[in-house]
Amino acid sequence: MAETTCPQCGGQIKEMDPKVGSSVCQSCGLVDPETETEQSEVDNKEDGSNTPVQTETSSLNVTWVSDVNVRDSSDENIVELLLLLDRAAHQLRFCRDNRIRAAELVISGWENRLLQGRSKDALVGASVYLASRESERPVPVSIIAKVVGEKEGLINNSYRELIKTLEIEVPVTGPEAYTQYLGEELGIQVGLVRKVEEFLDCETDISGNPAAIAVGALYLTASAHGHEITLAEAGKAAGVAKETVWRKVNDLRKLEVCESYLIQT
């Protein structure tokens, strides 16, 4: 395994996973996947090509990992967990604070042996979901499941075990909490998203998947204001079938305040 000097602290860099080109500083815990890009550029020059090969890993910037206290940076499991987490956070467009919080959660889960009997993807998905819940901008579990490539049920199980083990109290999340994330995914203007959020914050008396309810309300309001959004697009954003969105739209239409609040232009 190749070693070099860490550009951040001067410590020794140790190559951990040649397959993805990841390396980690044994002193500060800095994870750096850029080595694969450098090697790809060298290979291209030998082939006579000047075009660097861009990979999923090389497109990421995971220097934020150095802000997290990695007690044993030589352990390949924790490095792989952090790299998996960064890919998920990158795809979900997590801000720096949310990425760091998710990393803290996944490390705590690893330290508490939550990987026993569970996949790394399930623990990463659970940590990402919990971080999004704590930030009051939850991402639907079904979307996280697609991003990390794990079954939704296994992520839910890991999430419940994570909050139980770490003794974290998470407030109940209603449909209104999902409006900001879904509104951004669908490209709906902020004013309309806030209008839907205020509506859903009141008693709507609709049961079911909160993300599906939220996206149904957003679909109604967006359509009334000239936004061309299909049921399929709305369902994809919320991680549910378009038929589910249609059912929630019909449920919302039955509410007395729906016409005046959501549909009125």
Question: What is the compact description of this entry?
Answer:
The chain has 265 residues and is mainly alpha-helical.
Describe, in plain words, how this protein is organized in 3D.
The chain is mostly helical and 265 residues long. Strands 1-2-3-4 form a 4-stranded antiparallel β-sheet, with helices on one face. It has helices spanning 35-46, 76-91, 96-111, 120-134, 141-148, 152-165, 179-186, 190-201, 210-224, 231-238, 242-253, 258-263, and strands spanning 3-5, 12-17, 22-25, 31-32. It has 12 helices and 4 strands, in the order E-E-E-E-H-H-H-H-H-H-H-H-H-H-H-H. Helix 2 crosses helix 4 (120-134), helix 3 crosses helix 4 (120-134) and helix 4 (120-134) packs antiparallel against helix 5. It folds into 2 domains: 3-165, Cyclin A, domain 1; 175-263, Cyclin-like (Cyclin A, domain 1). The N and C termini lie far apart (64 Å). Residues 16-21 and 33-61 have low confidence and may be disordered.
Within CATH, the superfamily of the largest domain carries the name Cyclin-like
CATH architecture of the largest domain: Orthogonal Bundle
Structural class: mainly alpha
The geometry reads as: elongated
* CATH topology call of the largest domain: Cyclin A, domain 1
